[in-house]
Amino acid sequence: MSTEATSAIKVPVSGKSANVSEKKGSKKNGKIEQVQFTLKTPKGTKDWADKDMVIREGIFNSLSQLFKRHGGVTIDTPVFELREILAGKYGEDSKLIYNLEDQGGELTSLRYDLTVPFARFVAMNGISQIKRYHIAKVYRRDQPAMTKGRMREFYQCDFDVAGSHDPMVPDAEILAILVEGLTGLGVTDFKIKLNHRKILDGIFQVCGVKDEDVRKISSAVDKLDKLPWEAVKKEMCEEKNQPEEVADKIGEFVKLNGSIEEILSILTKNELLSNNPSAAEGLKEMQILDTYAKAFNITSFISFDLSLARGLDYYTGLIYEAVTAQSAPPKDADQKKKNAKTDDEDASEYVGVGSIAAGGRYDNLVGMFSGASRSSGKAGASIPCVGISFGVERIFSLIKARLESQQFKVRPTSTQVYIMAFGGGEGWNGFLAERMAIAKKLWSAGIECEYLYKAKANPRKQFDAAEKSGCPVGVILGKEEYPQGKLRVKLLGTGENDDGELIDIDDVVEVVKSKLKDGNVDGVDEVTRLLKGL
Amino acid sequence: MSTEATSAIKVPVSGKSANVSEKKGSKKNGKIEQVQFTLKTPKGTKDWADKDMVIREGIFNSLSQLFKRHGGVTIDTPVFELREILAGKYGEDSKLIYNLEDQGGELTSLRYDLTVPFARFVAMNGISQIKRYHIAKVYRRDQPAMTKGRMREFYQCDFDVAGSHDPMVPDAEILAILVEGLTGLGVTDFKIKLNHRKILDGIFQVCGVKDEDVRKISSAVDKLDKLPWEAVKKEMCEEKNQPEEVADKIGEFVKLNGSIEEILSILTKNELLSNNPSAAEGLKEMQILDTYAKAFNITSFISFDLSLARGLDYYTGLIYEAVTAQSAPPKDADQKKKNAKTDDEDASEYVGVGSIAAGGRYDNLVGMFSGASRSSGKAGASIPCVGISFGVERIFSLIKARLESQQFKVRPTSTQVYIMAFGGGEGWNGFLAERMAIAKKLWSAGIECEYLYKAKANPRKQFDAAEKSGCPVGVILGKEEYPQGKLRVKLLGTGENDDGELIDIDDVVEVVKSKLKDGNVDGVDEVTRLLKGL
């Protein structure tokens, strides 16, 4: 069903109404006025329903299982936070935060992501170690772009590890989770671009960028996934006042990408960089990461890409982004050709496409809540963290497109059995109470079943309803058979015109279970199989 | 872990900050000022975590399965709606609606319940029939009462049937769902109080209440679950200007309760009432309902209670409320005795306790969005609806208390296997990459496992971590055994001091699966069993 339909309706409003928006349209003389408004959801939001909802629930389920497999626990934080909790965390994007009206009491805002509430939760409860996942909606007053799947209300699926651990151990597992999560959803055509903030900072330093300019040059580099180098260089030189030779030196570095091993071998040969304390620390960590990535057998997905910078200020170490050619917005007529799978394409071909998962290490965010001083940089109870956020709406679009291309029919309900009564003529009461009693038996056995909400229903209408539900088994109460303690159980949708199997009423649960098993029909497994692209 | 801990912290703030709440505390001279704020969640909200989260997810899962069993599909609507959608739906309680700040664009408010968004969804998409469930948070600026489980942000679990069907057919199934839902969660000590708005209206009419006074007299009756009859009578006579004889006549009716059969037999003998058109229609429907309730075998839970009125204006037919003695707030020292289960207690003993599920029929709400005129009462595209809302936070409290009384240990993680490396001395590297490789094997097989995030971990710390997680199986990589292609698999928490079973590395998935099966250990089933109170 369409969830974008809108219709203008007229609602009569009394002048006495206490409602603000209605008051606007009414004169204050008590006369009834007409206020017209459009029946729609707010800008940048939508209803989810029907098959889309089944697919999305399948994705959430797959990711929840993944997170649990890795020892994750889930938390649920309020949809709004005290406004001061969010303040100063999102830089320029703070203007996109939704505020709640001041109706007396505290000032609050809708959460902008799940990371800041997580850091607040960790600090507030004095937690020293946790692996938590959180699947929930976040809110951004962005310009919505429905076609690109960018909404003002959208889901994030986050997994984060907080706590002091040996270097790169949780980081490597997060990358394993990223690979396991995407492949588990049938998305295999992706690369993980990764980089290290400390190496990036070291590069800027050895190229001659002043310390106070590092963040803004980093944010210029961050645009390399959308702009060509020449445009980024221009921004560095003209807007951000860097000498051309500084920009050119940076340019030499940020064009590098390849396996961790390859890029490390290039960078470690650069003595200037190796001797830079920040870069040296980053290089050492990347070396450790390489060992763990090999243990997890995920190196084929990884591209160490020095152009990756990531926008958010709070990252302090490893950063990463999973990109797929599939998610590229159509740019030209060759798009379809580009979308075709190729096994040997390198990471550069993925440049410019949207990311489907991203994250990084942020060691100081919890400390901002635990009493750390932002101006001095001194740590309070700082809890290092590393995490990943799956872009579930984009992943949804990929999967939906795949299912459509396979002409796979997703069933919106889980109904397994439709209960029907056949009969007619003199004294026929429609067996409604009898159908209810059979339904009760099946429900009590955990079997999903329905029947037509009609006292006397004709067979055609009942079969139509069963067919519409797409359920595999029919149970039929015949006018003569039922009073003799008998029912028919019939496989539906087989195209065969048989009468089904005549059984004792008492055996209905057992027989239905066996038919469902024979037909290998299981709503959940179907969706799982389908998500995995099997 | 406590989620109510708060700590006052100091955060330095620059006067340049764009943040409103921070600006308040800072002088506008650019000097860094100290702003103190409390690290907490907004009033009436809380974080959910740890075991509470496991129990709550178990409840949601149980109810979702229930709703799917009855042919339900789920929808997801935005957390905020256009303000005019909510306007005029909640009477006096409209003042409890949370508004979003006017930041340019549309005026919006957080949803107050899931029913109005559902009606908006049905009308907007021109849906003629749907069985939908929705588990989501709603928002009310009420005075929070944490001890009673009343919060400003809380979950509702709703199932509603929209569409024109034969009388009382979906209504009866909703009652079956109510019984199945509560008993499926191990709550068996409850009564469903039910009544019919049309009978209630008929009673008021035959008692001499004027048409324009019916709603306010109904709302006085609604207080009978909290006040004695004398207080309600006083309100009717003194505040609502009814003659004493009218109130007394009403009093005769509203004290009636019993089985549908019993109450129907009393009411149908009352000629005045039987001849009232509204009451007659209601009585006919109750007669039909009785047949269906018997088919579903749920009559023992039902009490036809003429004192039930339900606050919301939009109900038009059958109304109901499930109450349990267990949820009674302690009033006196006898409380504990009262809480004890008794099989023969009648419905009157449940009076005054909180309801754990409630709902009713509302045939005109969708029509308000489809173009119906509220002043004239003429219907547009009116879609009759009937639904139930489970009070999941109260049910949560009941279940949690039960688990605590049984000293049942809920595990926060789903971890099944802890992977450990034993060794030491010269050349010992801690087998971290090796543990990762084994973990990868188990994850790929869908098995939940963890290992200590430490390169070289001592055996004691690894066992402690395994024990803390409460997982049933340990996999041990021995310094000598592992290089020979061997592992040990050991059942944990048995108290036995054995060395486990020595196996080939290649067999690890198979052996672990068999151990998990032997131990009959399954996190999900455990919670399910526990929720059912088995």
Brief characterization of the structure:
The structure is a homodimer of 534-residue chains. Chain A is an alpha+beta fold and 534 residues long.
How would you describe what is shown here?
The first copy, chain A, is 37% helix and 19% strand. Chain A folds into four domains: 7-39, no CATH class; 43-162 and 386-410, Bira Bifunctional Protein, Domain 2 (BirA Bifunctional Protein, domain 2); 189-362, BirA Bifunctional Protein, domain 2 (2-Layer Sandwich); 417-529, Anticodon-binding domain (Rossmann fold). The two termini of chain A are 27 Å apart. Chain A is built from 19 helices and 18 strands. Chain A has 534 residues and is α+β, with helices and mostly antiparallel strands. In chain A, helix 2 (50-69) packs across helix 15. In chain A, the strands form four sheets. A nine-stranded mixed β-sheet of chain A has the order 3-6-7-13-12-11-8-10-9. Chain A has helices spanning 20-25, 50-69, 83-86, 115-124, 169-184, 197-207, 214-221, 229-239, 244-254, 260-269, 271-274, 277-295, 335-339, 365-369, 392-405, 432-444, 459-469, 508-518, 523-531; strands at 7-13, 33-39, 73-74, 80-82, 108-110, 130-139, 153-162, 190-196, 257-258, 302-305, 318-324, 355-362, 385-390, 417-422, 449-451, 473-478, 486-491, 501-504. In chain A, strand 16 (473-478) and strand 17 (486-491) form a beta hairpin. The interface between A and B is large, with 125 and 124 residues.
